[in-house]
Amino acid sequence: MHRSLGQAVRWAEQVLAEAGIDSARTDALLLAGHLLGLSRGEVEARAIIGGDEPAGYAELVAERARRVPLQHLTGVAHFRYLTLSVGPGVFVPRPETETVVQTVVDELRQQLAAGVHRPRVVDLGTGSGAIAASVAHEVPQARVHAVELSESAHAWAARNLRGTRAELVRGDLRTAFPELEGRCDVVVSNPPYIPADALPREPEAREHDPELALYGGGEDGLELPRAALASAVRLLRPGGFFVMEHAEVQAEPVARAFREAGLVDVVGHQDLTGRDRATAGRTPELAAPAPDETAPDETAPDEMGE
After folding, report:
1. Residues annotated as region Disordered (predicted)?
2. 128 annotated to a ligand binding site
């Protein structure tokens, strides 16, 4: 059946809304834009002035209605100022992680203003490379290192970090970068944190995100977040900064774990919807050495010389 672009988009919006997709209109436009090589706004304009439904549109809409992630269908995810390559086998970056990146960027800019030369950043469990790529792009003075355990996610991260100066290694966040211990200025992590007996609410995550990127281990889901915290303490210099994403209900136990690990200035950070979705803290500064009370007072007169 021949349809105009406007008719096709309206049909797709209805199909996606009936499938329970809140962003039905946006997704309908983005799928058409993917096939036409146009932006969302350009699709809306062409739908008004006239145009035909692109070939393959109905098939893509049907896939999206089955809750295949939009990003898997288009092959891209928009994250802050970047367009990332994503697909099966890698966690699709979420908007709440953009606020974690902002926290890192703000910290790095403060460190640069304070005279820290080329601050060193480690991203533990980088997934698609979204955090590492964004930091490398927005703070080019930073030296960025990232680690990812999953073979498939590592491949996506390598693609997204290509052309940056970020170092990417495949490995376990528990033991990553032993050569950088005590030398890092900032550590950031968005580790898996869903409890083993919990299921993601959205079918897109539940059915298509890799389990390795979702489940944090243990009844509370905090086994890997605690491991990331331990690695951060190991990697950071005195006064270094660590920020980690977590579920809203985990804010209190995560803050407690930060303090138990010896971090100071522990503070929660909210996402754009006002939910407590990240916690930050610092390693203590080195205390100034106490004066040696047994040492001779160099300001006292030399009795032997009097």
Report:
1. 272-306
2. yes
Question: Does 88 carry a binding-site annotation?
Answer: no
Confirm or deny that 274 is annotated as ligand binding: no
CATH architecture for the domain at 95-282: 3-Layer(aba) Sandwich (3.40)
Q: Give CA–CA dist 216/78, Å, rounded.
A: 25
Per-residue pLDDT for 198 more than 80? Answer: no
Extended strands (E) in the chain: 76-79, 82-85, 120-124, 143-148, 167-170, 184-189, 236-245, 264-270, 276-282
289 is in an annotated binding site: no
Distance CA 37, CA 87 (A): 19
Q: Is 160 annotated as a binding residue?
A: no
Domain boundaries of the chain, sorted by first residue: 5-66, 95-282
Q: Residue 148 annotated as binding? A: yes
Q: Is 129 among the annotated ligand-binding positions?
A: yes
Largest pairwise CA distance in the chain: 112
Long-range residue pairs from 136-143, CB within 8 A, at least 24 positions apart, any chain: 136/161, 136/164, 136/165, 136/166, 137/81, 137/82, 137/164, 138/80, 138/81, 138/101, 138/105, 139/105, 139/108, 139/109, 139/112, 140/165, 141/108, 141/112, 142/108, 142/118, 142/186, 143/118, 143/119
pTM of the predicted model as reported, rounded to 2 decimal places = 0.86
126 annotated to bind ligand: yes
State which H helix or E strand residue 12 sits in: helix 5-18
Cα gap 299→44, rounded to integer Å: 81
